[in-house]
Amino acid sequence: MIPDLSRASWLLRPLATAFLALTALLAFGVAAYAHGVDTSDAGYIAEITGINLLPYVYLGAKHMITGYDHILFLLGVIFFLYKMEHIGIYVSLFAIGHSTTMVLGVYFNWAISSYFIDAIIGLSVVYKALDNIGAFQRWLGFQPNTKAATLIFGLFHGLGLATKVLEYNMSEDGLLPNLIAFNVGVEIGQLLALATILIVMGFWRRTRSFWKFAYSANVAMLCAGFVLFGYQLVGLVVVP
Q1: In angstroms, what CA-CA distances link 30 with 24, 61, 119, 175, 227?
Q2: Residues near 111 by Cβ (< 8 Å), separated by ≥ 6?
Q3: What are phi and psi of 79, to 5 degrees?
Q4: Given this model, what pLDDT does residue 173 score?
Q5: Distance (Å, rounded) from C-alpha 129 to C-alpha 188?
Q6: pLDDT tens-digit map of 163-208
Q7: Which distant-in-sequence residues (6+ apart) come within 8 Å of 195 by Cβ?
């Protein structure tokens, strides 16, 4: 964890960064719909039947790579992880969680409001940012089980994926193999996103600016999570 987090000087600079992040997110709020179902993809899926593994692998990878909320949470999870074995454990827990509820949610047609689920996913980003800046230790006096939290939030991320997949109106013919293919694509997309994050983080950690701005970055992530939560909450209330 970052030392001297209680010093006011540590708070003023990240707050300025956070306001800039908030401004950018609000200005480009329309981008929040980028994580929805692409019209052309939905049209293509509606037209095909039977087992189509490669198209679904592609759609799964595309969905994860463009899933800013999933990537933000993943960034938070590995932000202070240095050993590949630790990264592997946490990423595997996340993958187990979202794979389980994604497949079950689609197969059993768990029709849950996408706004509600995506609001919880926004809160998962908030949780991880707070965890990274040591807020729970200071506020509650103990550290929540980070592995359990990663698995639990992975389950919610999977439900978020399921709500998007259900919008594809997939054919019952070949449903399970296609779902598995979609999930494989999601894992491929996750690995590609993770590899990119690790490369960037690896270079950043070698510089002096890492510890100087790590707290600021997590506060910005915290604000982004609240923006995502608020956006989905508004959709839950306003959209019929």
Answers
A1: 11, 22, 16, 32, 12
A2: 166
A3: -55, -45
A4: 87
A5: 25
A6: 888 887 788 888 889 899 999 999 999 999 999 999 999 999 999 8
A7: none
CA gap 63, 229 in Å, rounded: 19
Q: Residue 198: enclosing H or E segment and its boundaries? A: helix 175-205
Backbone phi, psi, residue 11, to 5°? -85, -35
CA terminus-to-terminus distance, the chain: 43
SS3 sequence, 67-92?
CHHHHHHHHHHHCCCCCHHHHHHHHH
Residues in the chain: 240
* pLDDT tens by residue, 189-200: 999 999 999 999
Cα distance between residue 13 and residue 129, in whole Å: 16
Residue 167: count other Cβ atoms within 10 Å of its Cβ. Answer: 14
pLDDT given at position 76: 94
What six digits make up the tokens of 62?
């595309």
Answer yes or no: pTM beyond 0.85. Answer: no
Domain ranges of the chain: 52-235
